[in-house]
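Data card: per-record layout.
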Amino acid sequence: MAAWRSHDINNKATQGIITAGVLLNYAFCQLKGDNRADFIVDEQARQTLMGYRKNVLMAEHDWELVFNDMQQEPKRTHEDSDYQQQLLEQYHQLVHYLCILVSMLRKGVVLPAIVDYQVPIEQGIEALVIQLRDGVDTTFPYLDDLNTELQDDSLSADQMTVRAVIMLSAATLKHLHQLKSSGELI
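The structure for this 186-residue chain is written out next.
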């Protein structure tokens, strides 16, 4: 049973990270400002964005259900319970940031310079998925927080919020990547 539950929770963790990556990718496309959707008048764009948000929240819920089921089993069958709890707590935090980002996208905030972070964040998500799914140590890409375009004093409060949320999301992904599994039953 422990092996099945461990496999199931790793699948839920991997799926959660993938759905977060899909939402982030969509956000980067909107933040570019090219073909930006007007979520107030474009029903299809609004439904797409809300669908991505729903997927992230459902992934969180599914992961939490499996974790709670695991906690109900005898302690001797828990594999990496502390590690799984830390992963889930960090994912809760990531979901919180992504929900803030969704609200900023709905306001129509554009910040083209943030797209410079798209590739490293996508690479970080890929590294995290490989690490969770395959148990292989991977390297999280370096994110340079000194981009002068993003330090511009002329940015609006909304643009600064988007910048902060993206950077907090990236830091949370990196923290998820740095958590290490002991692989032991307790």
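Known properties of this structure: The chain has five helices and no strands. Helices lie at 2-32, 43-72, 81-106, 118-134, 157-178.

See the next section for split statistics.
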